[in-house]
Structure formats: structure tokens, C-alpha cells
Write a structure and sequence with these properties.
Helix 7 packs antiparallel against helix 8, helix 8 packs antiparallel against helix 9 and helix 9 packs antiparallel against helix 11. The chain is an alpha+beta fold and 382 residues long. The chain starts with 6 loop residues before the first helix and ends in a 7-residue tail after the last helix. The chain has eleven helices and eight strands. The strands form two sheets. Strands 1-4-5-8 form a four-stranded mixed β-sheet. It is globular, with a radius of gyration of 21 Å. It binds flavin-adenine dinucleotide (FAD). The site of flavin-adenine dinucleotide (FAD) has 19 residues, from strand 1, strand 3 and helix 11.
């Protein structure tokens, strides 16, 4: 496995690093509200950093996944946030490229790339999270296409989104994984109600989406009717793509911030703090190389391998451990909030947000099951 950059990759990294350093002030972590995020996303597009691995004929730059990984590493080091259309760019766009009609390609891809058409992902329901095939949101035949009724939860960015990649049940008689269909639903259609859910961290990045008699045109079906499971699995495979590299790069930047915090607060000679930091560093190096293995597999086969499950599991635990250590180092000052707090409460916020890491994108229990069955070859339990 080659771990260093090729000459072209190295030049790309240098240009990107220079560009990022001109965009994002170094030092204390920044606040990003949705307006600032949109402006940031637009500048990413204008500078040619949106859709790096999308095919050229669909408006991307047609670069190998390694370039997306370089983008992930450098943007994490620079403290850059996610693109506001992270779901559209990384997950929905590639799914439309695979399954979309010519009309859908023309209608959605340019706006996804430029950040003007924001997508959310409407898969989870109150009784369909880990067991996604239990989706009950119903789409019945309607003269214009389908009439949709049901409820989705935890839809990240649904309050900002223009469209939703929605997983619905079109055939209630069919067995679980069959009878599902994917729709590209207009979030402003009558009957779509978005209710923000407040997270433990105080953020309201995700939502409940109530759907009452929503009419969706027949031309909004993505992929074959009744084959929504296959379409949804394509979306989830893209979620895992180079995401592992993004996660470990962010964790590495976070560990640097923790070391900075430890030194600023004079805790650098505390033996327990030193031990924890050394262990986190070792853990992180393990994750980093697992990320490179996942990338090598992705480049070889086009599909992310089981490494991505190990990576997501290890990353969530390490991130929770890191932010818990940050609060221990802050000591009683961890109780402060807002401008009085160290870095305006950055670590408090990160710690609370890290609780979701072992739930979002596949819970730790589910990932352990995947590792047991698909990596270690243990018998299936269900
Ligand atoms: C921050 C965040 C953002 C999210 N964004 C989105 C989004 O944009 N779109 C979207 O559709 N969804 C989103 N989700 C939802 C996420 O995908 C689900 O929360 C996740 O799949 C778990 O489903 P659940 O919450 O229904 O829990 P459940 O599946 O009900 O699980 C409850 C508990 O039971 C355990 N469990 C369940 N089945 C098994 C099993 N077979 N073996 C062992 N243990 C098991 C789980 O691990 C968990 O601990 C988001 C979630 C979070 C936290």
C-alpha cells in the first residue's frame, strides 16, 4: 500500500492547503451559522473543490477517491466545516448518477454541486432505524404519481433542505426489503411539515418530518419502483466511502486542539493526562491506517469494505474518550457556558455532540455485529 502522495496528489494538496489557509483563520475554532455555511459551500464550489470524485460528464472533476481523502485531511486540519449540502454531494448525488433518469440528472446535479439545491435523507422512522427495512411511510397510487403519508425522524438538515431522498413503502404486501421505493420529494410540497428536534448539545440540526397527503409526481421516483432497498443501500455505501478518512482527520485535528488546551491550562505534566493522550494518539494511528486500508479497498473495488465499520466504531469511541478528557482537564470551569467558558464552550459542545457518534450512521451494537459476522466469520445471531 502506498501511503505518501504521488506528485500530482502532492501538488493538489499544496494548492488546497494554500487556498484553505486564505479562507479560514487559524487558531481558535470558529462558529458556523447556516448563512456562513452556505457562503463557505459556495466558495468551495467556485474554487473547484465540490464533487472532486464525481464524473466529469456530470460536472465533477473525475478524480480518484484519494483526492477526496486529501480534501478531507486538509479541510479537517484547517478547521473547515462540512459542506452545507454534505448529504447531497456525498450521498444523494452519486445515487442520482447511478439510478437517475436524464431529466433527473439535468434537474438536480448542477444545483447539488453548486450548493443551491440542498438535500436531506429521509430514511429513519420511529420504528425503522437499525432495522431500516421496517419503513412504514406509505406511498399510494395517485393520478399524478404517489400520495405519501407517514413520519420520518432524525432527518439532518431537513429544515434547510429543498429536497429529500425519501424511502417509502409502495407495496405493503411484499416482504420487508421488497415493496420499497425511493422518491426525490420537494420539501416545499403541501403536506410536508418539518419540526426541529433539539439535541443534547443545544443544536437543532435534525428534525421530525411529518408527511400528510403529500403528492409526489411519478417523475420523482429514483430507480425502479419496488427496488428502493437497492437504491438506499447505494446511498449508504457512499456515506461510508471516504467518510472514514474525514472522521480520522477530524479526530487528529481535535487531538491537536486537546494538546493545545492541555498546554494552555498547564496540565501537560499530569501523568494521567499524558497517559490518556498517548493512548489516544496510538488509537488514532490505528484508525488512520484502517482508513487508508478502507481507501485502498474503495479504489480497488469501488466499494468500501468492512474496514469502514471498524473505523466508524473505533472513531466514535475515541472521540467520546477525547472530549471527556478535555472536560476533565477543564475541571470545574467545564461548568461555564458561553463567552465565559474556555474557547466559548467549544469542548462542552463537542462532548455533548459526541454522544450521538455511537448512534448516527449505524449504532455501535450494529457495527459490532457486522465486525463479528463479516470480519471474524462468527455465526449470525438473527
Ligand atoms: C446526529 C444524528 C443524525 C442522523 N441523521 C439522519 C438522517 O439525516 N437521516 C436519517 O434517515 N436518519 C438519521 N439518523 C438516524 C440514525 O440513522 C438512527 O438513529 C440509527 O440508525 C439508529 O436507529 P434508532 O435510533 O431507530 O435506534 P434503534 O434501531 O431502535 O436501536 C435502539 C438500540 O437497540 C440496539 N439494536 C437495534 N437492533 C439491534 C441488533 N440487531 N443487535 C444489537 N443491538 C441492536 C441499537 O444499537 C440501539 O442501541 C441520525 C441520527 C443521529 C443521532
Amino acid at each position: 500500500m502506498r501511503l505518501g502522495d504521488s506528485q500530482d496528489e502532492g501538488e493538489f494538496r499544496t494548492r488546497l492547503r494554500d487556498w484553505l489557509s486564505g479562507q479560514i483563520p487559524a487558531g481558535v475554532p470558529q462558529e458556523w451559522d447556516s448563512e456562513r455555511l452556505r457562503a463557505w459551500s459556495k466558495s468551495l464550489y467556485q474554487a473547484g473543490y465540490a464533487g472532486l470524485s464525481w464524473p466529469v460528464e456530470h460536472g465533477g472533476r473525475g478524480l480518484p477517491a484519494a483526492y477526496q481523502a486529501i480534501y478531507a485531511e486538509e479541510s479537517a486540519l484547517a478547521g473547515a466545516p462540512d459542506h452545507v449540502n454534505v448529504i447531497g454531494l456525498n450521498m444523494v448525488g452519486p445515487t442520482i448518477i447511478k439510478y437517475g433518469t436524464q431529466a433527473q440528472l439535468a434537474e438536480f446535479l448542477p444545483g447539488i454541486l453548486s450548493g443551491e439545491t440542498i438535500f436531506c435523507q429521509g430514511f429513519s422512522e420511529p420504528d425503522a432505524g437499525s432495522d431500516l427495512a421496517s419503513v412504514r411511510t406509505r406511498a399510494r397510487a395517485h393520478p399524478k404519481g404517489y400520495q405519501v403519508d407517514g413520519e420520518k425522524v432524525w432527518s439532518s438538515y431537513a429544515h434547510l433542505a429543498d429536497y429529500c431522498l425519501l424511502l417509502v413503502r409502495t407495496d405493503p404486501e411484499a416482504v420487508k426489503h421488497h415493496g420499497l421505493t425511493c422518491l426525490l420529494m420537494d420539501m416545499r410540497a403541501p403536506g410536508v411539515q418539518v419540526r426541529p428536534l433539539r439535541e443534547l448539545s443545544g443544536d437543532t440540526d435534525f428534525n421530525q418530518v411529518i408527511l400528510t397527503d403529500v403528492v409526489v409526481g411519478a417523475d420523482s421516483v429514483l430507480g425502479p419502483v419496488g427496488q428502493g432497498w437497492r437504491v438506499a443501500m447505494t446511498t449508504l455505501a457512499h456515506e461510508r466511502g471516504t467518510f472514514g478518512i474525514t472522521l480520522t482527520s477530524r479526530l487528529s485535528a481535535e487531538l491537536d486542539r486537546l494538546v493545545q488546551t492541555v498546554l494552555t491550562l498547564g496540565a501537560g505534566s499530569d501523568p494521567l493526562v499524558r497517559k490518556e493522550i498517548a493512548e489516544l494518539h496510538v488509537q488514532l494511528q490505528g484508525l488512520r491506517f484502517t482508513g487508508y486500508r478502507a481507501l485502498a479497498e474503495l479504489q480497488r473495488t469501488g466499494e468500501p469494505g468492512a474496514e469502514s465499520s471498524i473505523l466508524k466504531l473505533g472513531w466514535s469511541l475515541a472521540n467520546q474518550r477525547l472530549t471527556a478528557l478535555a472536560l476533565r482537564v477543564l475541571g470545574p470551569d467545564a461548568a461555564f457556558d458561553g463567552p465565559q467558558a474556555f474557547w466559548s464552550g467549544y469542548w462542552q459542545q463537542q462532548h455533548l455532540r459526541s454522544r450521538t457518534n455511537s448512534i448516527e450512521g449505524g449504532t455501535s451494537e450494529i457495527l459490532r455485529g457486522i465486525v463479528a459476522e463479516r470480519v471474524l466469520g462468527l455465526p449470525r445471531t438473527r
